Every structure is written in C-alpha cells, then in structure tokens.
Amino acid sequence: MTPLSALETTAQTALAPVLDPLTGQDWVSSRHLKSLKVTDGRAVVDIALGYPASSQWPAYTELVRQALLAVSGITAVEVNWSTQILTHAASRGQALLPGVKNVVAVASGKGGVGKSTTAVNLALALAAEGARVGMLDADIYGPSQPLMLGLSGKPDSPDGKTIDPPQNFGIQMMSMGLLVENQAATIWRGPMASQAFDQLLRLSNWGTPGEPLDYLVVDMPPGTGDIHLSISQRSPLTAAVIVTTPQDIALLDARKGLQMFEKVSVPVLGIVENMAVFCCPKCGHEEHIFGEDGGKRMAEDFNVPLLGSMPLDLQIRVQADGGQPTLVADPDSKNAQLYKEMARKLAAGLSKLPKDYSAKMPGVSVVQPKA
Asked: Does the chain have fewer CB atoms within 10 Å around its N or its C terminus?
C-alpha cells in the first residue's frame, strides 16, 4: 500500500472509531478499509464489507462522511463500497464443498413453523443484498423448494455423473423434488435418505467457473433424528440458523435442534421467531396467537442473537405457495425488509467466524532418499 500523507493518516485516525453497525468492528482495524486517498481536499474511500448489505451502503456512507468532514482540510468525501465474502472454516475441519464458500443450515426442531418459507426468503434476501447464493432442499421426504421457487422438470447432467442445479430469481436450487416423478412419495429408510442428500450436495455443480457461491443455504428436514445428525456431521456446515414459533412446544423442539448443532460443533448464528404476532387486516388489532417473546427468551438462554421476528401474515404463505416468495412478489414490502434485515445479521455474524486457510497452506510431500 502506498504510504499515507499526513492528512490521510489523520483521516484514517478519524475513521477508526466508526463502528460497523452490524459487526461492531471498525473498518480500519478489521482491514475492510482498502484505500483512503485525499486530493485537493477530496477524500476517496474504498471499503469492502465481509457480508452483503448493498441496501445499507447509503447509510454507511453517511457515517464515513460525518467522520471525515470533521477533519480539517477535507471538504468532500466519496465512498466506494464493495462486497468481499470470504470462505470460513467448516465444522470439524471438513473439506470444503467445491464451488461454495459457506454452507448455512436453516433448521427447526419440528415441522409447521415456516422453516422452508424462511429459508427461501433468507436466501433471496442474501442475493438481493449482493451475494451469490444457492439453495439445497435437504428434506428428502417432503421437498418444498421447487414449488416455492417455481422450478420443475429434471435438471441437466453435463457428463452423466454430476447435475447442473436449475436457477430462478437469481439463485441456484437443487432438490429431490426435481428428481422424483410426479411428486411421488419418497419411502426410504434413514441411511438411504442420508445418502441421497449427500449426492445432492456433492454431485451438484454449484456456482460457475471462477465464481463460487458465497452462501449455500440448506433447508434442513424438520426434527432432530438420525438423518439430521448424519447431515450435520457429514456436511461441511459453516453455521446454522434456528427457526421457531413462540409457542412452548415449538420452543422445546427448537432447543433440541440448537443443542444438536452445538454437539457437532456447528456455530448457531441466531434464531428466527416466526408467526410472532397476527395483525388483523381489518381493524389493525395485534394478537400473539402462539405466545409472546418465546424466541427472545430462547436466544437469551443460549446466548445467541435473535435475528428477527416475522408476523403471521397470509401473504407470506400465498406468495410462497404461488412460486413467488415475498422477496420476489413484493420486494419493497415491510415483510421483505424484515427478511433482508435478518439476512444481513446472519451474514454479518458469519463474517466474524474463523476463516478457512486450507487453500493457502503449502502442499507437503515426502521424498524417499536415494540409497
């Protein structure tokens, strides 16, 4: 890096106390500040965030401007933002998935809490914020992502061995629902289902040459049985997100799901509280049908973030069932903004996890000395 002038050094010092609203880290010491130049009183700043948040760049720009305009000698500020999502270490040191930087599991302890709807909207929200995203439907018995993403038909296989995941709304998706004829029931024992998931995960051509996915979101099956444990142990998971409703019975099962990830050393990025409140569309009255603040209490008990709370809204269900999830059907709605906020929080939390340095490690070879 070119040495800084006295004014540029002062400007960098002024910028150091400014904290990233989501990570709580400053952009200088965390090395997200890539360049700071001052010419004729005009400061040009380049910052690369470790998580997708393009919708927040104007607000972040204002934070930088306020800090730098307070420096004597700087009269104008230009901030250039970019996204630089790194690869983070997988659980238990597992080998990374080709074409994928980070694998995030979205799980729940029981069915019916809106896990799949949450997973697809979080994936679309990450993409809307500037990330390359894929979706893997790990529910072998009840795949729902093909319907939610409006995809059908068998995917292409370029070599008869691997599969090109189809794409819609800017994200790749692979699911057993695309391989089973006429949505026939999948009646398999646990080991067969685990093997099928493994093949979907590892035989799919994720990303494109030179452009790996930043995030592969895995829509986990509901529950905490043998197949879930197998998936958690055999997949190179970077982190997980737990979806629950506020009611006690759902929280009881959600706790089991969270503890399962803890036992297999997968960091939990946070909890999504779904169906938190119902707002009457006619009179505006709010009612906590499934209880109140259950997700918040669980987050406090396990010392993990509450990523957000989603309302019980008919439109969310209608949009997902119609093959146009909320982020696609109504991207400017309040619900879409809530999904985006949760996606930014989980991505920011993931950016603080240990990095993967396996690609930078030199190879080691043992040479037998000649006799």
From this structure: C
